[in-house]
Design a protein that fits this description.
By secondary structure, this protein is α/β, with parallel strands linked by helices. It is built from 3 helices and 9 strands, in the order βββαβαββαβββ. It has a single domain, classed as Rossmann fold (3-Layer(aba) Sandwich), CATH 3.40.50. Bound molecules: adenosine-5'-triphosphate and magnesium ion.
Length: about 150
């Protein structure tokens, strides 16, 4: 499946996938390996839905060489890979959309990079027009699985 010039693993075609944590990580690694920057991946989902877990897996699959578990509360985390810069942006603590400018948002979005955004809704109309969108939802009655909706 091709989304623009981005290649998305075949599983992403399906909606209604429920995945345990290990499956979600494996899916994320596949997505990272198939990602073709410039690419923005927007991950939505409630607190604890697994956005960071997925973002870290995408980074691993893409070939990020730094440790992606860096314990930081920075809104923007930059990693390196052999291919291009990788940004993991968590907008949960963004106080106001206007603060995007302070974190270098426009420059990052103009770069040839892989950019993964948690809480993209906080960026409002400053999100680029067509990111690859992934939604994670809790599954009622099963705390170990998440519903994945992609594309
Ligand atoms: N199927 C699953 N996929 C992902 N995480 C799972 C799954 N089942 C249980 N979990 C647990 O849910 C938690 C997900 O945490 P994570 O930090 O990835 O969520 P998040 O969406 O980034 O949260 P936040 O909104 O606070 O940033 C982890 O503790 C993980 O172990
Ligand atoms: Mg998170």
């Amino acid at each position: 499946m091709r989304v623009g010039h981005h290649i998305v693993p075949p599983l992403a075609k399906q909606s209604g996938l429920t995945l345990d944590e290990q499956q979600l990580a494996a899916w994320g690694e596949d997505l990272g390996a198939a990602s073709n920057p410039p690419l923005v991946i927007a991950i939505t989902g409630d607190l604890g839905a697994g956005k960071t877990t997925l973002a870290q897996a995408i980074c691993r699959g893409f070939g990020v060489t730094d440790a992606v578990t860096s314990p930081t509360y920075a809104i923007v985390q930059q990693y390196s890979s052999e291919r291009c810069p990788v940004y993991h942006i968590d907008l949960y603590r963004l106080d106001d959309q206007s603060h995007l400018t302070n974190i270098g948002w426009d420059d990052i979005m103009a770069e040839h990079a892989l950019v993964i955004v948690e809480w993209p809704e906080r960026a409002g109309d400053r999100m680029p027009p067509d990111p690859l969108h992934i939604e994670l939802d809790y599954v009622e009655g099963d705390a170990t699985r998440r519903l994945l909706i992609a594309g």
